[in-house]
Amino acid sequence: MSMFRSLHTVLDEMRECCKTSNYSYLMSLIEEAQHMSNKMESKLDKRGHKKWKGKNKIRRLKTRIRELESAQLKHINDVERREYNDTVA
Hints:
By secondary structure, this protein is mainly α. It contains two helices and no strands. The longest helix is centred in the middle third of the chain and has 63 residues, at 26-88.
């Protein structure tokens, strides 16, 4: 067995066990698949935690952008109102 086996390879060997009705090594394949999936799951959890922090930062930045855009629109409206008042007066 290679040290760098994929989960797909292990699952293929499980299928082969069922085809040939040779279940002598099926338990070790199940344990190997469980071990591989646990490792993948833990890596996803770690990455997901970092990604979640990034999503919070993105959410805060988007909120700040909306605040700045509304302030900019308010400023533009004030300037237009002053210009209008100057032309009318």
